[in-house]
Amino acid sequence: MLITVKCPGCRRRVNYWAADLVQVLGPEHQLHEPPFPCSRCRTREVDVSWSIPSPRDLQGLTVRRPVRQVVKWIWRDERLELWQKDSG
């Protein structure tokens, strides 16, 4: 099954294989909910549709596929205080 996401604002159109989205988003994700915000204009107001394309329809079609998962670490700065030992 092919999932097509269209942004009405910037007109970006992206195709995904449903099996890839299940792998990335999990099986509980609802089909009618957008998988991601638009990567161009960042809106979440996108149109989601699905189809089972024929081999002829697949000719020359671009489909976005996952390559690898990247873990992103979040860092914070901490100010260190110098402690003085009690003299005595």
Automatic annotation (TrEMBL):
This is Uncharacterized protein.
